[in-house]
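Could you join me in thinking about how sequence relates to backbone shape in a protein? We need material for that, and I hope you will provide a protein of your own picking. Label the sequence line and the structure token line clearly, so we can match residues to local backbone shapes. Would you write everything just below, so we can both look at the same thing?
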Amino acid sequence: MEKLEMHTADLAKENYEKLAALFPNAVTETVDEEGNVVRAIDKDVLMQEINTQVVDDGQERYQFTWPDKRKTIMLANQPIAKTLRLDREKSVSRDGTQGGDIDSENIYIEGDNLDALKILRETYLGKVKMIYIDPPYNTGNDFIYEDDFSQSSSDYSDNSGQTDEEGNRLVQNSESNGRFHTDWLNMIYPRLRIAKDLLSEDGLIFISIDEHESHNLRKICDEIFGVQNFISQIIWEKRYTRSNNAKRFTTLTEPIICYAKNIMYVSDIKERRSAKADSIYSNPDNDPRGPWTSVSYVNPASKNQRPNLVYKLHNPITGVDVEHPTNAWKYERATYENHVKDNRLYWGKNGENTYPRLKKFLSEMDGGMVPVDLWRQDVTGTTDQASKELENFLGRKIFDFPKPKELIIRILSLIINNNQQKDNIILDFFSGSATTAHAVMQLNAEDGGHRRYIMVQLPETTEEDSEAHKAGYPTICDIGEERIRRAGKKIKEETGADIDYGFRCFKVDSSNMKDVYYKPSDMKQNQMDLFADNIKEDRTPEDLLIQVMLDLGVLLSSKIEETEIAGKKVFSVENGYLIACFDEKVTEEVVTAIAKQHPYYAVFRDSSMADDSVAANFEQIFMTYSPQTVRKVL
């Protein structure tokens, strides 16, 4: 049996191993500052292999950098021994019932989003179709993050009271702070690094931002996603009234930056047709193909520029042959003749048009419309409308500057790769008031989609004198979760749609395993009794199951069933794909029953066998009944 790692991936180690596999002759050893022999890459050998220039420190080059950037890259790659724990009391079943079955495929995670992204990375690698985030805008307001690396301003933070009781930095990032941009960049960079890994090859990320960091965000995304994967900078009209309190310009718009994971896989991006767009279609000649609109047949190019597109057209109603005096036509003669045969040319009801127009039928527009990069408030809503809607949901104003759900719905509605977006995972790791979750449910109800969401939000506490705290919402997570519950109830009442109205609520926590699990070599002889049980005393079998699922790459939304075999609790995940038993004193009867179900994975506790005889026969039982099963212990 193999032992599970039970911690997130070490990306730096993985990257080294990939490089070493490609160029084994570049692998060497050297001595670090402490005199230890460590692995290394010989850059001279690497330069010979790839035949390109390697830039050394101090050499001029084009780059975007800031203090601590190297540490943020290391931070993104470092593994963590943390896990997710299911909160059944907060979870909501698929039908919208709180405290019911844990059958929803939607995920809500309470915790630091950097930790959450690292925990999700292996399981959801390449599985997320679309990411939308609305990160802190760095306007000088408070925002919280807990990234653990030394910074030159740490003494200042401690002295100014900007750390909590556990030493985590609580940053009020005022513009007078000399690290105004640095702190924000250190926060966003590692999160985007990991987020890219979660995107599918044809996935897109949309990021709302303002003018304080939009220029830096573009540079970061160019570096992480690649300049070639930039799609657009959408301008959203977030308000339409002038503010007389503004000293200079009133800001009516806000950018939304869009990048692809790999532009080569994004063949088409279109959005849903609107009633306004369809209103231009009519059928004045009663064409059996239905409503149509028309476009000019005249080419902007002159006859001299496109002589191959110059010929006479015949008006079948008047019998007159026409030729444009200065311009060519848009199509070659053979294409024109096909248009005539297919009744695609419209000369007016009585042939009164000087030149024909080409019919475009509404029935042929099933691919949607090419999106534009200016989004008006009449379609995508405003921040004021979003605030009022949330206030109506929760009974009072308790959250500042939420995004309108219409904005997120428009983002979600973009048609990617032939409308397959109706069954995809949507991620928002700055969830806030959970507008994205609301939008996913609303759109699923409208078009019958099966989009699933993953929301991540730091449980930032609300101020004691705030309306949110007075209303019974001690954290931002409580606001978002309640919004999802109420939005789901409202959508269900209004539409009756058979969609997923629930979510499984998880909390980021320390690993279920004691330190001895990860560092047995550090244990002294008189501590050997710790090996008897390497699982923390306050953890349940369900806690262990969730961490095992994450370690083995099994989706958190998978179906989980509990059964009993010979008095022992047994978990079956995704119809027997993974079967786990974490009880003590497991007998041969239990092991045999599990093996006979032919799971892909079978997982037990390391010291769970009832006696030495069961442990000795364990492998033989599986070799007899299910030799293909991968056996793991923790």
User: Anything to note?
Assistant: The longest strand covers residues 199-208.
